Amino acid sequence: MTSSFDPRALLAESRLGVLATIKADGRPQLSPVTPFYDRSAEVILVSTREGLAKAVNLRRDPRTALEVTSANGRAWATAEGTARLSGPGTDPHGPEVEALVDYYRAAAGEHPDWDEYRSVMVSDRRVLITIAVEHVYGAKLD
């Protein structure tokens, strides 16, 4: 392993990860997600739907971890933290949906039809997960 590896850099560039939450029985629940890591704010943003296992689990127990892996599988990074959920929103121009618009812009860029996106966020009952990053670790294999 190399000491110059920066796991936060891998977190920042990764758009596919696995989010771990804690089931009611204490076992882990793993979900593939599209994360966006804001290094300056030390938060990770993830969109999900209300009622899915990760949202239900995080509302009960906000402890979570996100793992990302490099494309070649030779580097990985894990961020642990505490999640806060906002939404779902009922107003396409309300603060809950605006937060999802900001997430989309950060993670993917501009959407071709923001009115459609906003409408879908409301009808899908989308929720924004904001993870306050408390600990990051990882490794790169030489």
Keywords:
alpha+beta; Pnp Oxidase, Chain A; 4 helices; single chain; 142 residues; seven-stranded antiparallel β-sheet
- Determine the N-to-C terminus distance: 6 Å
Mean pLDDT: 94
Tell me the Rg in angstroms. 16 Å
How many alpha or pi helices? Answer: 4
Share of residues in strands = 35-45%
The strand order across the widest sheet is 2-1-5-6-7-4-3
Shape category: globular
Helix content: 25-40%
Q: Do you know the CATH architecture of the domain at 7-85 and 128-140?
A: Roll
CATH level 1 class label of the domain at 7-85 and 128-140: Mainly Beta
Low-pLDDT windows of residues: none
Strands, total number: 7
Can you describe what's shown?
- With 142 residues, this protein is α+β, with helices and mostly antiparallel strands.
- The chain has a domain at 7-85 and 128-140: Electron Transport, Fmn-binding Protein, Chain A (Pnp Oxidase, Chain A), CATH 2.30.110.
- It has four helices and seven strands, in the order αββββαββααβ.
- The chain has helices at 7-13, 53-60, 95-108, 114-123; strands at residues 17-22, 28-33, 36-38, 43-49, 63-69, 75-86, 126-140.
- Strands 2-1-5-6-7-4-3 form a seven-stranded antiparallel beta sheet.
- Helix 3 crosses helix 4 (114-123).
- It comes from Saccharothrix espanaensis (strain ATCC 51144 / DSM 44229 / JCM 9112 / NBRC 15066 / NRRL 15764).
- InterPro entries: F420-binding_dom_put (IPR019920), F420H2_bilvrd_red/Heme_oxyg (IPR052019), Pyridox_Oxase_N (IPR011576), Split_barrel_FMN-bd (IPR012349).
- One of its GO terms (cellular component) is cytosol.
- Residues 8-137 form the Pyridoxamine 5'-phosphate oxidase N-terminal domain.
